[in-house]
Design a protein that fits this description.
Number of strands: 13
Mean pLDDT: 90
Order of helices and strands: HEEEEEEHEEEEEEEHHHHH
Structural class: alpha+beta
Largest sheet: 6 strands, antiparallel
Low-confidence stretches: none
Strand order of the largest sheet: 1-6-3-4-5-2
Shape: elongated
Helix content: 25-40%
Number of domains: 3
Distance between the termini: 43 Å
Strand content: 15-25%
Length: about 300
Amino acid sequence: MTTYADLINQVRQQILGYAKDQLAVTEMTQPMGAADTSFTVDTDTIENLSRGLVEIDDELILVKSYDSNSGTVQVMGGLNGRGAEGTIAATHDASALVTSDPRFPRQRVKEAINQAITGVYPDLVTFGYTEITNVSVVYEYGMPADALDVWAVSDQTIGPTQVWTQGTKFRFNPSASPSAFPTGKSIQLFDAVTPGRTMRVKYTKAPSVLVNASDDFEAVSGLPDRCSDLIVWSACSRLLPAYESARLQQQAIEATERAPLVPPKSAAQVAAYYYQMYQQRLQEERNRLFLENPQPTYYAS
């Protein structure tokens, strides 16, 4: 089982490396509330902090100053320094890690992962099911709001055989009249089905994004767990170009010194490499999707 937290860690390890770039980290010694304008960190490692942006869990905070003796850190601008860069001010537990000037904030990584999940559609789809009871002389029935298309229809035959026959004459209507069908989506069925029998509709829907760190990738997104690698590669290709943007800011000593060692467009080339791997895996999964879910011919005139 791959969780949201697993994906975040995998992406960060890919783009940061395992050992080359060591993050400047300390830890909190007391809990912090969402409205607090100061927090306390370990005095042995407080020197790892710097004025400016720090990350605690998913929140970015602006640091104004810190006291090396007491470990107290003041937030710049009071509450205005909480939830910086579009993150959300939150509570943090004691022992939470505090990272100075994070290269790739967790919030940005989480956003890239969810963008990658939504980006696989329509190449990859997930499936939902709904059942309809056939009514004589009725040919159009409502569909769930998350339905994007109809993949297959089957109907229950009469008798003890338990056989479901494959429907071949159906049409999805994504612009149905809301007055007749509240979701604005319907299916038109033209196969000869005995009234009162059940018809099972298999429909496609877009993958769902992840929210909580413990979210099971397969259970929540609807994509197979084996697709986690292509999501990681897509997220990496979205994040790495930020390295090139950093080149535009050559005021930092480290950036100036490393510039001759890391040629221009290196990050863009690595991003292209990840994107190529993503595209290859995406095509593999698309082929597998159609192999495992054969789509019958349907009425579309």
